[in-house]
Amino acid sequence: MLTIKHQSTIEKAVKANHERAFYSQYPEHPKAYGEQAPEEGHNRFKAQLNTPFSQLLQSGESGWAGEEVSPYTMEPLGITYPLFTADDLVEKAVAAAPQWRNTTVDIRADILVETLERIQSYFFDIAYATMHTTGQSFMMSFQASGPHANDRALEAIAMGYHELNRYPAEQLWEKPMGKFALQLKKNFRAMPKGPGLVIGCSTFPVWNSLPGIYADLVTGNPVIVKPHPRAILPIAIAVSAIQQVLQEKGFNPNLCQLAADTSATPITKTLCEHPGIKLIDYTGGSQFGNYVESLPGKSVFTEKAGVNSVILDSVTDIDAVMQNLAFSVSLYSGQMCTAPQNFFIPAGGIQTPNGTLSFDEVVEKFKNAVTALVTNPKMGAGTLGALQNDTTLQRAHNAGKLGAKVILEGQPLVNEEFTHARGFTPAILQVDSADRHIFEQELFGPVLLLVKTKDTDESIQLARQMAQQHGAITCAAYAISPDTKEKITEAMNSVFTPVSFNFTGFIWVNQHAAFSDFHVTGGNPAGNASFTNPEFILRRFVWVGNREVTGS
Amino acid sequence: MLTIKHQSTIEKAVKANHERAFYSQYPEHPKAYGEQAPEEGHNRFKAQLNTPFSQLLQSGESGWAGEEVSPYTMEPLGITYPLFTADDLVEKAVAAAPQWRNTTVDIRADILVETLERIQSYFFDIAYATMHTTGQSFMMSFQASGPHANDRALEAIAMGYHELNRYPAEQLWEKPMGKFALQLKKNFRAMPKGPGLVIGCSTFPVWNSLPGIYADLVTGNPVIVKPHPRAILPIAIAVSAIQQVLQEKGFNPNLCQLAADTSATPITKTLCEHPGIKLIDYTGGSQFGNYVESLPGKSVFTEKAGVNSVILDSVTDIDAVMQNLAFSVSLYSGQMCTAPQNFFIPAGGIQTPNGTLSFDEVVEKFKNAVTALVTNPKMGAGTLGALQNDTTLQRAHNAGKLGAKVILEGQPLVNEEFTHARGFTPAILQVDSADRHIFEQELFGPVLLLVKTKDTDESIQLARQMAQQHGAITCAAYAISPDTKEKITEAMNSVFTPVSFNFTGFIWVNQHAAFSDFHVTGGNPAGNASFTNPEFILRRFVWVGNREVTGS
């Protein structure tokens, strides 16, 4: 193996991928990036507004368009992006492919880590871009689209580096045959399947796209990045940074192309069905996701919708639990794929060290915890952020019409910094375990359901069924008895859903840490991808072994 | 990790899987297994004839049936097997699953190696059973269904052991937060997706089934083994050996069930479509294989039909090449999935150290080499074996009607030991590169096509197209110039087909060695499985990670 600039970074990441202890290459605190960085990033973001995004190293566009609107100011960003036809994008990807394919994985990984360093220099530009397209708070925008996304990208690079170095490039095969030995020279090549297509979503335009982009690139595939038309800027900055480095290193920047489109004339299906596209990463709604998964001849990686559950059985500190859950449901107004939606609470209440807390008392405590958080002027707006789009706002508005008992009505969120922000506080509804038609739908956004069950066994059974039939990315559970914990683990793991037990304090079920937590296990209807299990890398290339008689 | 009986065997196999040099756990020479073993095996095989196969540890059968006929004697074996309904088989598999799933992979791997040792004690029983169901020669029957199959099974066990030990079962995750650290206890569980179904074929009933059986079992899945109704006995003996060991070790023998059926009332589709079946391994024709691959909600591993090519450009020793190819096409009468079918030869002939050999001279030499082999009383019948079924015989009979120029007519094979054997010598046909409709079909059995091309570039182009459109498992090429070799490698590898260069002597393109050669790369229409790349294991289970606040 060659000595490469970022070898130590890559090797530490490979080790972290396997140890699954805490590891991070990119500090999550903004202060780690220098005093000037935030303001410089903000200034560049402001300068970008109302101008064409001209930093891409792509040419031959058929037009320019853009339709992003800030969920905080409700004003258009006024940025336009170059548009390309699907044929043009695929042709350029194919043309760029051979040089990259024939570069060793060590060199590819090295260059890709260099692109992450370049993206790092734009972390604050990306943060403001994320905030004003997704509605995430500034802090979440910075962390999710910056260091956390880069860590997930490094995870994919490291897994690729590890897997493509799994077998020797060349090997002598010598079979003893008594008086002589048969000899063959063999070589093993990891042939990329691509080009790849990465389809982004409007809520996590960078975090959900970088893993697929880097998984494609490290395995030797060119990649076409198709962002959601309402959240282009954050990933456009990242793609532009990747293109800069590729060009500086003597590679064709078309190895990573941006494929912006508009709501009026979308190109996603055309790209998906293009015979040249062989790999598709998709984040978004289940209906389109199921379509993508059904396409013949494509290797597909999806993260779709799910219904995440919380099972409440027994706790040691009810107030700490309620504060933790109130934060989990409020964080980015329930617009995270990991946000809990259904809270299963036994009709007989839950156990605490001070005796049983009745169902109604639990409901009251939950309501109070959410209310305290969202009305706290220092916490509310900063935690809830803004709603990315009107559909989510309407869903929150209409939560009272679902047929459930309304425990807490949602209402327009007061945001003193952005008075026009699209914000709405969480609605809390109560239903019975028989009201499946209500709680088995994904109610994306600030709507949560407290489900009164017969007992914890019914809670487990329902949470399991939801995951099996509708998918789940997470499950939180509060239980003291080892038997109950084991029962919950067995039931949820059997439908390939991870369980987080007894979270209180500064750790929330919504968070999946790079290098340690698999994100979307791939075993239930919530999706078939996982950041980053080995398959996320292996399904993007094919091992081919050639043989030759020695001396020939 | 525990110390287990077969730890050293497993660890050596893991190392071999990764080094991909020559490795074998089970010697391929019959003499390695003791002087008495062949006769004892033969006697047990003869004693089994015309009796029910009662060694299985399965009960509750709905009837008994069997329809095997020896391709050597053309007489029914007269053996019957217990029949079970699909529901019954799946129910029993599900019931057996939890204990096995909750056993560590180390213990599972140890027990599974023990089952291979048990199978080894039946190598000769299986050899005679294979010979008299498939029509393979005795030596091929012994090697393919015995040591080679066991080596492939060990390869799968070792890959499973390696992959399921990739992550720690438990890990402490500690995130520094300035003045304190967040701590989570995490555990990572490999949750099996099964039950699995392994569908066998009539030509390689053991070699093609053991890898899927062992890949399912090592990853914690119960498996149902559905052999071809005309080749049940060889795998029935193996399944029975596996059941014996499972029971001895305190496990439910239903973890590995035989699901015999009949041509008149097949149960394969019912099993495939059973909602309880989650994993399917399939070997056989492309039409059924494509159906299996299309089933929603199943993880599928296939080996289907392909059209394997030989590209002839230039040689150093034409006679050595022709002897090698004559053996390759004659071995088991072209009934191997790796057998070459289409020979692309430039109209201008091929280069040798003694000048150009014209197209017609090449054809003549090929014809003579095949004739010399098949008419050699010491070689012919032993190499060609017998034809498994009448469809293959009819195809060989009718080769002259395909519309090609007949270079060598096939004819009934003389077999002095088995005078009634279903045998037919290879037919050699000649076509032009324009006659795609003839050479783009898989002509399974003793039929080969010499295709006259414009030049080597056209040969490469056609071989590439055949692989891309119809699938290919192997490609042989004869070329001296490094540029030509590189061109062939690039073209064939780009459609995920391995190339074997300049094979002469005791090595043939048909052979794929365990621990070194991937078998079916998974990248073209010939199938999506590969013995044994990591995906062959990884797609059978899901990593699920659970988290818990420490001290809770």
From TrEMBL, chains A, B:
<protein>
    <submittedName>
        <fullName>Phenylacetic acid degradation protein PaaN</fullName>
    </submittedName>
</protein>
<dbReference type="GO" id="GO:0009898">
    <property type="term" value="C:cytoplasmic side of plasma membrane"/>
</dbReference>
<dbReference type="InterPro" id="IPR016163">
    <property type="entry name" value="Ald_DH_C"/>
</dbReference>
<dbReference type="GO" id="GO:0010133">
    <property type="term" value="P:L-proline catabolic process to L-glutamate"/>
</dbReference>
<dbReference type="InterPro" id="IPR016161">
    <property type="entry name" value="Ald_DH/histidinol_DH"/>
</dbReference>
<dbReference type="InterPro" id="IPR016162">
    <property type="entry name" value="Ald_DH_N"/>
</dbReference>
<keyword id="KW-0560">Oxidoreductase</keyword>
<dbReference type="InterPro" id="IPR015590">
    <property type="entry name" value="Aldehyde_DH_dom"/>
</dbReference>
<keyword id="KW-0520">NAD</keyword>
<dbReference type="Pfam" id="PF00171">
    <property type="entry name" value="Aldedh"/>
</dbReference>
<dbReference type="InterPro" id="IPR011975">
    <property type="entry name" value="PaaN_2"/>
</dbReference>
<dbReference type="GO" id="GO:0003842">
    <property type="term" value="F:L-glutamate gamma-semialdehyde dehydrogenase activity"/>
</dbReference>
<feature type="domain" description="Aldehyde dehydrogenase">
    <location>
        <begin position="86"/>
        <end position="465"/>
    </location>
</feature>
<dbReference type="InterPro" id="IPR050485">
    <property type="entry name" value="Proline_metab_enzyme"/>
</dbReference>
